[in-house]
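Message: Study each token:
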Amino acid sequence: MKKEAVQFIVNKPFNVSILSIKKYPIHWHEDVTEILLPLKGSIEVNANFEHILVKEGDFWFVNNKSIHSIRSSSKAIVAVFHIDLNYFEKYFKYIKYMFFRNNMYSQGNTRIESDNYDDDIRKGYKTRFRNLLVSVLTDITSQDPLAEELTRDSMYQLVASMVQEFNWLQFLKKSNDFISPLQLDRYHRIVKYIDEHYHEKITLDDIAKQEFITKNYFSHLWKNLSHFSFNERLNYERTLKSEFLLLSTNMSIATIAEKCGFSDVKYYYKHFRRWYGVKPLEHKKRCQEYMDSQFDYEELDLSSMANIIKSYIKEIVIPDYSQDNIWKTSYLFDNFVKMKYLYKFDKITPQPPPRSVIVNVLNPSNFKNKEGKFYFNWQNIDLLVNFSETSDFKINIKLDCQFLDDFSYKDIIHTFLDSCIYRYRIVTIEKWNFVINYQDEKSFNVAIGIGNIIHDKIQNANIRYYFEI
């Protein structure tokens, strides 16, 4: 077992490769986050104590310094993204100490699936993130002169999404919970302190003193944020650190326990079994047997992967948006291609500012009402939101009252806004303009009602009304 170095080019803080994998050795990366996206076939990832089945259509984060291996029952084709945390540290101060997740948590050595989340909010986050990964792949395999610039834009969006939506505190919290930036920074400062001092004795008093807060306040804050007590988290970190010594040295269990900060070897056994489900030497033996077997993987030529990626888009990405065939997949695929073209066109011939894009949300091409159930074309909206975040476009959400009536408009607007808040967060939506048009006195009253709903949900919303003839 060894550290696998990832070489980054100056001003290019990411690497993308596509591999055929049946069995990949145990390894880890330092100051790197790895993202695995199976394009064909499923993979099983062993990361520290977790065993995760990652299916086609999903992805998985391998966190900084996480010991992991990858295998597949048949040779899976996997896109592998490496992100340079040293580079992005200037934008996100504690990114090296963030733990990224896209599924619910597991204890012990039971295999779980990477899509075991339980609500549409997380599904929306994951769909957008996966489609950004796919967008990167379409660019790097296109041999387009603009590919590098387009890829750089998408990678920054990916990292921002990781921090804002897949930091495990954010991803696992309930939808109505709020974690302030101050709380997040405090949490990550403490995690950094643990990472640097895990081998020493660390008490609640030490942390409280460092943070200038009372011990009682800190205990409640930590429990509310992390779902584990501080001592549980401290011993969790010590247990993970011990795996490096266990698998890469011949140290005795007693020595490993001491070097990792456990006051007694019996506590080390207790915590190791809690997380890994076995004794330390049993885990070591299992890993050695894995490393002694034959490996089977190869890196594939990116330029030959265009058809694989196109097939993935048609079979995985587009059907996700079809919503039980409400939207035809052929129409969605054509729109995907069109949006990518417009994005490239903007890079070639940028318009003078200010620049805007209009999303006619209630137009029949973007909205359908089937027996009281509302369907929005989220593919178009997702792509435009991604487009606007790196192209300095202002999004204008057009709400056309001619498509609404007095009886259903409130339910429709509530559904749309709630979904947007879940998918994109308030901080993104506050940048949008809501443009509401009306044609007569009746539709004017509907327009005012829509505006009131928007203001109730988005306090700093930008709303404009206009009359159309």
Remarks:
- The first strand starts at residue 2 and ends at 3.
- The chain has three domains: 2-175+297-303, 181-292, 348-467.
- The CA atoms of residues 136 and 151 lie 5 Å apart.
